[in-house]
Every structure is written in structure tokens, then in C-alpha cells.
């Protein structure tokens, strides 16, 4: 070890990588629409599947597993329709080693077939009721049958990582000799560890012909899905079977976002992936999960906290140079935030009890305000007091605190101003008309729109979205209403979350008013102002 004393960590990593069997190119086989859709509670409709397939293709995915055609008519039709899109990606479908499944895959017009059979003693005894010899004979006959119809045949020995290694290699060699062009090694119940998985992959890499692509398929039961997939690449695998957001059976599969970014940013592997499409694709899939699966705050790379900084020391350093506390720029993943000082201050410096003076001053200046020393310390004390109570200080809370101390936010900071709202409700279809003033290159332009809705609030929100549609496409993600005081004159407090579909930026806002429709409208106007402000600062 002494000879390594004077080398940097990155030189050390490079040295270690040179001793690995890293492939020259990483391929990605996406199984969001097959294993991912096996996530309990998740079903994508046909349009969503087509949209996901298009996005995966734009992302640069090499193989899209479109479904398991024999499982349902929906899967069968989805496979057929995805093939008809004529994408660059190869479209594959899953099949067991039997005639019906293979015929169904042929009828679905797929480009490639992914066949599988379980090989572990546990599965042979309890599920298949077959001997090892019977499994071998199935592999021989049905991989050959699959090969009669498909140039590309992927073979998976299900529960590979709990299979006797000699038998596993025998199965995979036989699959290759019967026509399989790719060998996938599934860690079906996520029980392998990186070194052991690496060993299994290396054994295959040393024994299988070099033109056979070895792929990793790792479930995340112990949270090791991505680590195991990376270990596979270190030992000769060149393809990762992954899902967007890590969707999949039980705790899911290795997440594509983490796998692809690690192999690219930490190992320098080339691939066909267009990395800045990762975040938009993840958000699209999240949206189609309909609230059943959401990106967690702490989710690596794409979670809300992944590029947020609160503590004084971190925030101060971030303002000088983003690499101090961010390993990569979020823009690399397509997250709409540049590394400019103003974008970092506006979007990534969060306030709370750990906030330092430097970051707070930068944040106040960012909204065009220069407080006196006394005003600054009042703002600072208010933020610390609220933070100390364990409350999250969101952007709108910050603006409210500043406004409290300094008076109204200057008019020049507003991009969208509500001029007029008229609502017609009762026994007629609820209809709302809004007149907005929208700032456009320094001047304000007026926009008027009317819309109907399920109620007066819905109609008003729809009218605002319509009014704003020439500027940006806006989606209302969540809407929460609560009465603050009792009685018919109760104050209505509305909290909303709104997304700019083009930038994928999400902001939250809230407002309180004695008229609940006005609460909703004011919250929406605040959110639009925030979206425009953040968009402008990320482009700065
Ligand atoms: O996890 C698994 O074993 C699978 C196979 C069908 C490849 O999904
Ligand atoms: Zn799986």
C-alpha cells in the first residue's frame, strides 16, 4: 500500500479500474414496461406505455422490454403498438420456455425475445417440479425454437444467484449453443452481494464466447441493486437491465438513473444514453405512476434534496463553486438548474435553522432587496426561530418573512399580476374569466381567458392555466384546502403544487383569503411568479 501514498483518489480509482474487466461500451435494457409494471399497484394504460417507450427511445435506451405478451391482451397489444412506433431501440418481450409463450411473442412482431426458466433447486423443487436434466432439455429445445424466429435471443436463468454455479454455467452455455445471443444473470430476489455477483459474472465472462453480451438484472431487496449491477460491469458485463425509478417486483430493480450516471460519471463508460434526458424521463414515469410511486426527497440524483443545501458552511461554499458540495451539475441529468451563482442561490440554497449569514444575504439580494443590518438580523432571527421549531421554510415562507420585515415585494419583482376575476356559479356550469398582466421583456401584456370547470375553483384555475398557456404549459399537481377558522366566514387556506411541463420545475405555494376561490387563485398566481422567477434565474 505504501506505493499508493502519493496518488490522488481519482488516480487510485483509475488504477483499480484498469485492473477490472470494464467493457468499452455500456448497453441499457430497460424493463420499466415489464418488470417495472410488475410493481404492486402500478398499471400503465396504452397511451402511457407508448409515451414511456418514446421517451426511453429518446433517452438512448438500447433495448426496451415492452411486456410479457402471453400474460394479458393488454401486454400483447402494447408490445405490438410499441413495435409499430418504429423506434431506434430494439423492442423485446418476455416468454417462458414453452411453445405458447414463444408463439405469442412471434405474433406480437417483436424484434427480440427474452426467454427464461428458473434454475435454482428451490424453484425446481417448489415451483417447476422438474429435475435439472428436464430444465436442460427445455433450454435446448425452446431456445432453439426461439432462435428459429428471432435473431436476438436473450436467455435468463431465473434465480441464477441461488443456483449451483456449475449448473448455472452449464445452463447458460447450453443456451448459447442453442442460439441465445445474450445471457442475462438475474438476482431474482436481491440476495447477492457485489463481490459474489462480480465473481459469478467473471466466471461467465471467462467461459462464454466474447461475442455474447452478459447482462445484469438485480433486484433491490437489500438495497444493493445498483451496487450489484456496477460490480457486474467491473467483471465483464456490458449490459444493465434496469427500470426507471427502480420500479419492479417487491423493492424494485436497479434504478436506471443511478446505474447509468454512476457508470458514466464514476467509471467513464461510453453509452448511447443522452444523459440530460434522465430527469425528464423519470418525471414522466413518476407522473404516470399516478401518485402511487413518487421520487423520494433523498432519492439519489433526482430527489428534491439531491441538489439542495441548507447548512451555512455548505451553502457558502456552493455559492463560490458548485463542485464543492455537488459531485456533478444537476443540469447533466436535465434538472433545470445551471451552476451559475444566481441559479444556485434561487433554487438550491434552502433556508432553515442551519442557514448562515452569507447564504441568507445572497438569497435576499437575489430577489432584488438590500436590507439594512437591522432588517437583515430580524429576517435572520425569524428564519432561525421558525426553523428551530422544525418547520420547513419554503420559498413562499421566505418571501413572506422578507415582506413582513421590508414591506411589499417590489412590483418589478412580479411577473404575473391578477387584474380581475369573475366567477359564475350556482345552477349554471361554473365558469370563470380572468384577466392577467404578464411581464414580457420588460413590458406587461394583458391576457384574458375563460374556462368552465367542475366547480368555481376548478373553473378559475383552468382559466389561469389557459391564460398562461402561451408562456408555459402548467400542470396542477396537488391542491389542498383547509378552513382556518370555523363558521361560514372561515378563512380558506389553499396549498398547491404546480409543475412547468417544459422545464419539469415544480413549485409549491399557498394563500389565505376569506373567499376560498380567491385563496386558490392567489396561490396559483404566486406559483406562476415563482416558476417564472426560477426559470429566469436558471437561464441567467
Ligand atoms: O427477476 C427475474 O428473475 C426476472 C426474470 C424474468 C429475468 O425478472
Ligand atoms: Zn426481475
From TrEMBL:
<dbReference type="Pfam" id="PF22617">
    <property type="entry name" value="HCS_D2"/>
</dbReference>
<keyword id="KW-0432">Leucine biosynthesis</keyword>
<dbReference type="InterPro" id="IPR002034">
    <property type="entry name" value="AIPM/Hcit_synth_CS"/>
</dbReference>
<protein>
    <recommendedName>
        <fullName>2-isopropylmalate synthase</fullName>
        <ecNumber>2.3.3.13</ecNumber>
    </recommendedName>
</protein>
<keyword id="KW-0028">Amino-acid biosynthesis</keyword>
<comment type="similarity">
    <text>Belongs to the alpha-IPM synthase/homocitrate synthase family.</text>
</comment>
<dbReference type="InterPro" id="IPR054691">
    <property type="entry name" value="LeuA/HCS_post-cat"/>
</dbReference>
<dbReference type="InterPro" id="IPR013709">
    <property type="entry name" value="2-isopropylmalate_synth_dimer"/>
</dbReference>
<dbReference type="GO" id="GO:0003852">
    <property type="term" value="F:2-isopropylmalate synthase activity"/>
</dbReference>
<keyword id="KW-0100">Branched-chain amino acid biosynthesis</keyword>
<keyword id="KW-0808">Transferase</keyword>
<comment type="pathway">
    <text>Amino-acid biosynthesis; L-leucine biosynthesis; L-leucine from 3-methyl-2-oxobutanoate: step 1/4.</text>
</comment>
<feature type="domain" description="Pyruvate carboxyltransferase">
    <location>
        <begin position="26"/>
        <end position="279"/>
    </location>
</feature>
<dbReference type="InterPro" id="IPR050073">
    <property type="entry name" value="2-IPM_HCS-like"/>
</dbReference>
<dbReference type="InterPro" id="IPR013785">
    <property type="entry name" value="Aldolase_TIM"/>
</dbReference>
<keyword id="KW-0012">Acyltransferase</keyword>
<dbReference type="Pfam" id="PF08502">
    <property type="entry name" value="LeuA_dimer"/>
</dbReference>
<dbReference type="Pfam" id="PF00682">
    <property type="entry name" value="HMGL-like"/>
</dbReference>
<dbReference type="InterPro" id="IPR000891">
    <property type="entry name" value="PYR_CT"/>
</dbReference>
<dbReference type="InterPro" id="IPR036230">
    <property type="entry name" value="LeuA_allosteric_dom_sf"/>
</dbReference>
Amino acid at each position: 500500500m505504501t506505493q499508493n501514498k502519493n496518488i490522488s483518489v481519482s488516480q487510485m480509482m483509475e488504477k483499480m479500474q484498469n485492473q477490472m474487466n470494464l467493457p468499452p461500451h455500456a448497453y441499457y435494457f430497460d424493463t420499466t414496461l415489464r418488470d417495472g409494471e410488475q410493481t404492486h399497484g402500478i398499471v400503465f394504460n396504452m397511451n402511457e406505455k407508448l409515451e414511456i417507450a418514446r421517451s426511453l427511445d429518446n433517452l438512448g435506451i438500447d433495448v426496451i422490454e415492452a411486456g410479457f405478451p402471453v400474460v394479458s391482451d393488454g401486454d400483447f397489444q402494447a408490445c405490438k403498438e410499441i413495435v409499430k412506433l418504429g423506434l431506434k431501440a430494439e423492442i423485446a418481450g418476455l416468454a417462458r420456455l414453452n411453445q405458447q409463450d414463444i408463439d405469442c411473442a412471434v405474433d406480437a412482431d417483436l424484434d427480440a425475445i427474452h426467454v427464461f426458466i428458473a434454475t435454482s433447486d428451490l424453484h425446481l423443487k417448489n415451483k417447476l417440479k422438474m429435475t435439472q436434466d428436464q430444465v436442460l432439455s427445455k433450454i435446448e429445445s425452446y431456445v432453439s425454437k426461439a432462435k428459429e424466429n428471432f435473431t436476438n435471443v436473450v436467455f435468463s436463468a431465473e434465480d441464477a444467484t441461488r443456483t449451483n454455479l456449475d449448473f448455472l454455467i452449464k445452463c447458460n452455455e447450453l443456451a448459447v449453443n442453442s442460439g441465445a445471443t445474450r445471457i442475462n444473470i438475474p438476482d431474482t430476489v436481491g440476495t447477492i452481494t457485489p463481490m459474489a455477483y462480480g465473481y459469478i459474472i467473471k466466471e461467465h465472462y471467462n467461459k462464454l464466447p466474447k461475442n455474447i453480451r452478459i447482462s445484469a438484472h438485480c433486484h433491490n431487496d437489500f438495497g444493493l441493486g445498483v451496487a450489484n449491477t456496477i460490480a457486474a460491469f467491473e467483471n465483464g458485463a456490458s449490459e444493465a437491465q434496469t427500470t426507471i425509478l427502480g420500479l419492479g417486483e417487491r423493492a424494485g430493480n436497479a434504478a436506471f438513473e443511478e446505474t447509468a450516471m454512476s457508470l458514466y460519471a464514476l467509471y467513464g463508460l461510453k453509452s448511447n444514453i443522452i444523459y440530460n434526458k434522465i430527469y425528464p424521463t423519470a418525471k414522466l414515469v413518476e407522473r404516470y405512476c399516478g401518485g402511487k410511486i413518487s421520487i423520494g426527497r433523498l432519492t439519489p440524483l433526482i430527489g428534491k434534496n439531491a441538489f439542495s443545501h441548507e447548512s451555512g458552511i455548505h451553502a457558502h461554499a456552493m455559492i463560490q463553486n458548485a463542485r464543492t458540495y455537488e459531485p456533478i451539475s444537476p443540469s447533466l441529468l436535465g434538472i433545470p438548474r445551471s451552476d451559475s451563482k444566481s441559479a444556485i442561490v434561487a433554487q438550491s440554497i434552502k433556508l432553515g435553522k442551519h442557514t448562515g449569514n452569507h447564504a441568507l444575504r445572497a438569497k435576499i439580494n437575489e430577489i432584488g432587496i438590500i436590507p439594512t443590518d437591522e432588517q437583515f438580523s430580524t429576517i435572520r432571527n425569524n428564519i432561525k426561530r421558525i426553523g428551530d421549531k422544525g418547520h420547513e421554510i419554503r420559498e413562499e415562507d421566505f418571501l413572506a418573512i422578507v415582506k413582513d420585515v421590508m414591506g411589499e415585494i417590489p412590483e418589478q419583482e412580479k411577473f404575473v399580476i391578477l387584474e380581475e376575476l369573475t366567477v359564475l356559479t350556482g345552477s349554471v356550469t361554473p365558469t370563470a374569466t380572468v384577466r392577467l398582466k404578464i411581464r414580457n421583456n420588460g413590458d406587461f401584456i394583458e391576457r384574458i381567458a375563460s374556462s368552465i370547470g367542475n366547480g368555481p375553483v376548478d373553473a378559475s384555475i383552468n382559466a389561469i392555466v389557459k391564460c398562461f398557456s402561451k408562456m408555459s404549459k402548467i400542470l396542477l399537481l396537488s391542491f389542498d384546502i383547509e378552513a382556518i377558522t370555523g363558521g361560514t366566514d372561515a378563512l380558506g387556506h389553499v396549498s398547491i403544487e404546480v409543475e412547468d411541463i417544459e422545464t419539469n420545475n415544480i413549485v409549491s405555494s399557498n394563500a389565505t383569503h376569506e373567499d376560498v376561490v380567491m385563496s386558490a387563485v392567489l396561490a396559483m398566481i404566486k406559483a406562476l411568479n415563482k416558476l417564472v422567477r426560477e426559470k429566469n434565474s436558471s437561464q441567467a
